[in-house]
Design brief:
Pfam families: DUF3237. This protein has about 170 residues and is mostly beta strands. The chain has 1 helix and 9 strands, in the order H-E-E-E-E-E-E-E-E-E. It is about 10% helix and about 55% strand. Bound molecules: 2-acetamido-2-deoxy-beta-D-glucopyranose (NAG) (2 copies).
Length: about 170
Amino acid sequence: MKSAFLGSLYCVLMLVGLGLSTDNRMPPKAPGLSHLYTVNITGGDAVPVGPGPRGTRLVVPILGGNFAGPKLKAHPPLGTVLPIGADWALTDANGVNGSLTANVRQTFKTDDGAFIQVFETGEVQPDGSAFVRLAYETGSEAYYWLNTVVAIGIIHNVDTNHLTIDTWQMTAP
Ligand SMILES: *[C@@H]1O[C@H](CO)[C@@H](O)[C@H](O)[C@H]1NC(C)=O
Ligand SMILES: *[C@@H]1O[C@H](CO)[C@@H](O)[C@H](O)[C@H]1NC(C)=O
């Protein structure tokens, strides 16, 4: 009896919740993007691991780099990309132009000594552009806000072993 009451109360609350969350504004407003940082990365020689159950794996070690941005030091001394991590990329033989999916883990060290773990995946687009999505993990009090950031980035290849990624934090409309 009591649980039936709680059940119907829950249903009522659900309906109220759905009613309140119904958003009739059309079209939806686009979120904003604020520049987080730009990073230059030096990669090592790619290791052609070859075909496997998920596609053809290509591993590119990260040798180092630097980053700077409005909230992550706009001026030298710059943050450092530690020589740890790699892109464990996959190519999809069925994708447009053998499309490449990046799967990167790397570690940043800020000029004030904080470590930031960076998780990044992304895809080469049919037109050749390369887009990534990023998430962060840090225990640093100064950069704790990064733990909830949803970010995207655009990769610019400088040459075979160097690339630049401009990253942007998503903000509410
Ligand atoms: C990245 O490289 C470019 C070109 O060499 C340079 O102008 C820029 O200052 C570098 N940025 C960082 C954060 O190292
Ligand atoms: C991928 O293939 C399409 C269709 O053949 C072509 O138009 C496009 O330029 C190719 N992109 C790259 C990056 O090669």
